[in-house]
Amino acid sequence: MSLWKNLIFTAIAVAALLYLAGGAEAGWLIDHERFHVSVHGQLSCQNCHGHIVEKSRHPDPVDVNRSLTDFFEPEQCAGCHETVFEEIAEGSHAGQEVTIHEGFDVCIECHHPHYQAATSVETTAVNLNRPAAEKCSQCHDIQDELPDFSDEDQPCLQCHLGAAGDETRAEEQTIELCLHCHGSENRQADSFALIEEKHYAATPHADVECLVCHPQAAAFEHGNQEPGECSQCHQPHDEKMTHDLHTAVTCGACHLNKVTPQRDGASRRIGWRRPAKPDRISPVHQMQVPQKDESCRVCHAGGNAIGASAMLLPAKSVICMPCHAATLSVGDSVTVLSLVLFLAGMVATGSVWFAGGEQRLGSLAKLMRSVGCALGAVISNRLPAIVGSFLLDGLLQRRLYRISKERWLLHALIFFPFLFRFIWGLLALIASLYWPQWSGAWEMLDKNHPLTAFVFDFSGLLTIVGIIGMILRRVQRRSEVATSGLPRADWPAYALLGGIMIVGYLLEAMRMSMTGSPGGASYAFVGDAIGRLLTGYDLTGIYGYVWYLHAIFTGLFIVYLPFSRMLHMIMAPVVMAMNAADR
To answer: CA Rg, the chain, in Å?
Structure first.
């Protein structure tokens, strides 16, 4: 294990120990320094916990799942604080008027039994974060170390004294504390899971302290604890590995051994269910590294109950980037075939472009000259003019706006949503690869995030409006086009583009219907509305086919693009920038 991972694990474990020893009222670990300066700092453990020695079993697994207040009895405090209870009975406490129904019979709800500061001036203002020479001298001469506990308290301290500052002891203490109950030798008639120590030593997290992954384990209400976040040590997988961002899937559903994935009915997140083992030895710590396809089949199989596609689908590839936050992968057959035919089409189109001009030069020589001129322009003083023309005339379509505001609007409704989505997806991809610690990267990739869901649905709707507007304008002016000699409408391009958008919305609706619209997904208002109509249908089997239909429409559009009039949406900015370089 690398040094930096060791440092991270140690820091998290020490922080958990400090938290449970210091701030958590139900914690089982005691901060020696805070206890020393508290009002009870000079007492023995036996003064308040003497009854523990009478228990036949300690800790008792039945007790650890209870609340700390379940063990409290007012008599524990009344033995020393009898006058306080008399004052409460008379209607006052700490100089304040009280009523009997305010719950003053549970002292520990306000007063921490181990860290309650004394009322004396000397200790009230003690700041434990200050240097020892300052904080210790407020009460006594400076000592080299805190005074030790009495001999009768030593058995208690073996488990309950937090080892803050001593990493080796902290690790040993955590192991001893957890394995006291969860060790495989504990074969009593209990129901909690056990760990086989020898097998656990060979697991990937064998060198990681228990409190790193189970930060609330050393505390009461033990059975209701939430597991730690894997993201405190691990970054999420990028989409090239998982084929899609599995935001709603917990890490354990894929990486814990022999668990059963299941979807939570409330949050709609996919978690996991522990395996039932008669011998109670839990295999979950024997982490598994998912293997290609085989591991995915746990969820992605026919008849699954978690709303996953029965078909294993590839990652969104480079041909998806104009519309989606995709990857740079070129692995699936649709992408490979589409790109090969697209490049062939561009070569054919380019051969026509370079057929003109000086006849003594071949097409390759003209291409190289064009590349040389472009590079020369970039490093010349014409660069500002080139960039300005590219942005204003190419991307913002300033010239078209001056000619016809109606045509500009229709072009903008189609072009700008694609441009926006492409930039969004590119930024999200780069951020997820190079700045994975930034949460915004994963929010931009998450289809169920409210902002992402809304802007993608809204931008897609704008594109459909633009396509419909283009078609209506062409139909209304078809006689004018026939007499003026202008190019006819590019109906195949309209059909393919419209097919991509319509099938895309259907695909989104199916996904939302299958997964139950996890939080935030409803902001994708178009997909949500259609998805509600599909509720109750088993769509997991056909989802993959619709996905490939969407991909095929996209591939056909890309193949057709070199021969389509829509190619000018790509080439116009380039040509205008080149013209600006010549001026």
So the answer is: 34
